[in-house]
Specification:
Elements lengths: L2 H16 L4 H10 L5 H5 L1 H4 L11 H27 L6 H28 L2 H7 L12 H10 L20 H5 L18 H20 L5 H6 L3 H4 L2 H30 L14 H5 L1 H4 L10 H5 L6
């Protein structure tokens, strides 16, 4: 046996012994294993059969695939964020690298809106969208999890109610005042739209768990818990500011502009499929979503979303 082969066998024996497994059994299993192929590993057959149209309009297929691509990117973002939120030995380079990866995903999401903005006929969209009511991209649970993982809950509270909520506020009360309830909840009466009611039936319990979990482990909380010399790292600060602006201004405005083409084609806004006032819900100058407020100057905070 070659020396290199002998060393590999020893490493395998050590690996499987550690988990109380007979390494020879696993070696024999390799004799009968089929060679891996691209289609076995990536599962394109399963992936390409997930697009199911509800109408006969061809551009609906663009709409479906585009949103599925978004969800895959959201999963990548959560995967990177989790490596920071669960890490108890963070360094500035590691933190910055993960944020830069996430920002690249959001940069891709921002630029990809041209697929929606230029890739569908307005007439077709305005026809097939009626079959989607009351579904809405608003109901992306992964995007809400990204927000919970990114910042303290107070920074996700509807701007009108932030002064009434603090760290001692019960999680469920804070949840009821999250900014996105402005898309379909009458805060005066408490009545919720079908859009939000169905969304909560599916995900509210998970959201409350995640809000609790991320209370002290979100990206902003992790940053604030670092030693001063790490928090002052310029590369890390740049990465955090870029991520914050990319998510809460660049990506939001790309989404807003794409929506405007289809929902405000003649200057008069059309109601979104979920029934929300999408203009006030989406535009950053209204809700002023800022993940890392301490990293922006008073002037930058005041002008947030005004010059886009």
């Amino acid at each position: 046996m070659k020396e290199t082969t002998q060393k590999l066998v020893e490493r395998l024996e050590e690996k499987f012994t550690t988990i109380d497994q007979n390494y020879e059994t696993h070696l024999e299993g390799l004799v009968w294993a089929k060679p891996i192929t691209y289609w076995d590993y990536i599962q394109p057959d399963a992936l390409l059969n997930l697009q199911v149209q509800r109408t006969t309009l061809p551009d609906e297929m663009v709409f479906i695939m585009y949103h599925q691509i978004n969800e895959l990117l959201f999963k990548m973002i959560l995967w990177e964020a989790e490596q920071v939120t669960t890490n108890n030995n963070l360094t500035a380079p590691f933190f910055a690298e993960k944020l830069n990866r996430i920002s690249r995903y959001f940069d891709m999401l921002s630029s990809s809106f041209s697929i929606m903005q230029e890739g569908m006929e307005v007439e077709q969209y305005l026809k097939f969208r009626t079959t989607l009511t009351p579904a809405s991209g608003f109901q992306s649970a992964q995007y809400r999890l990204i927000e919970f993982a990114s910042t303290d809950t107070i920074n996700l509270i509807d701007y009108r109610f932030r002064a009434t909520i603090d760290r001692n506020t019960p999680i469920e009360h804070a949840y009821e005042h999250l900014y996105w309830h402005a898309a379909g909840k009458d805060h005066a009466t408490g009545k919720k739209s079908t859009l939000i009611r169905l969304f909560e039936e599916k995900y509210k319990a998970e959201f409350l768990r995640k809000m609790e979990e991320y209370n002290t482990t979100n990206l902003y909380a992790k940053f604030k818990s670092l030693p001063d010399d790490v928090k002052s790292d310029n590369a890390l600060i740049r990465a955090m500011r870029h991520y914050d602006y990319t998510v809460n201004v660049s990506w939001v405005m790309a989404h807003y502009n794409a929506a405007a083409k289809y929902l405000q084609p003649q200057g008069e806004a059309v109601e979104a499929t979920g029934g929300s006032d999408w203009r006030k819900y989406m535009h950053p100058r209204y809700q002023r979503r800022i993940f890392f407020p301490d990293l922006w100057s008073a002037e930058e905070l005041e002008d947030w979303g005004k010059n886009v």
